[in-house]
Write a structure and sequence with these properties.
Helix 2 crosses helix 3. The protein is globular, with a radius of gyration of 13 Å. By secondary structure, the protein is an alpha+beta fold. It has helices at residues 10-17, 21-28, 32-40, 47-57; strands at 2-8, 65-70.
Length: 75
């Protein structure tokens, strides 16, 4: 049994804090392109990036993605 990452919730967290994706990228010292890829689901945050993003956004790491429960680790 395992959790699988679902939809990225970063846009929701940014909107709640009134932070633009461009400002978030500047603060996180990454490209706006990478933030766009994360938001669109083309890329995923590393654990280190997610921890730092959660710290900056004053949320939990688990607030950054929908977590889907899977009955099997092989999925």
């Amino acid at each position: 049994m395992a959790f699988l990452l679902g939809e990225c919730l970063l846009p929701d967290r940014l909107q709640e804090k009134g932070i633009s994706p461009a400002d978030f990228a500047r603060h996180m010292k990454c490209s706006r392109s990478f933030v766009s890829q994360v938001i669109s689901g083309d890329s995923r945050m590393s654990l280190e990036f997610a921890i730092n993003a959660a710290h900056f956004l004053n949320c939990r790491v688990t607030d950054l993605y929908v977590l889907n429960w899977s009955g099997s680790r092989s999925e």
